[in-house]
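**Folding the chain**
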Amino acid sequence: MKNILKIFLIFITALAFIFTAFFFLKFNKVEYQSSVSNSTAVKKLNKKVFAPGFLNTGSSAISTDFSFDREAKNDTIGFSFHPSLHENSENRLSLNFNSGDGYSGLNIEVMKIGSWFSSSIETYTDNVKPFDFLDRDQYSIKKQKLILNKPEYKKGDSIFGKIELEIQSNINDSVYQAGGYFRGKIE
């Protein structure tokens, strides 16, 4: 009986260690700067326009200058931004950056839990092929940094921030620097 108890205790300890290691590898600490809402980059969002052919399913106001693999050197925007609180937890915030034409595109989701966050990226298409589920993800996030204007939000609050991501292509090992400023109302 003691051996079974020892094995069970070792198993629980190993499981806790694996979970803790995964958490610290996947999640990073959020930085807070109240001044981000008054930055010139956020104010310049008013002068930006959506790219031609961009499918905008939300507000007509520009909410981000997020760019993938380039610095935004012009006033054309290719991503939309949608912040929302989780229905069952006010401590869980989801920040979604999307670029697409209605048939294919790219989604970047940033999940903030407390003062920690994690980012994920996925591509989508309507061109379904057999065994698509066997394909590995096209991109993975190597480094991430999130700056927000305050630590806690409620529905209807304004949110301002900056995201920086280092994204690696899993197909050809190219590395992309993505990021930008954003603003919006929590849904």
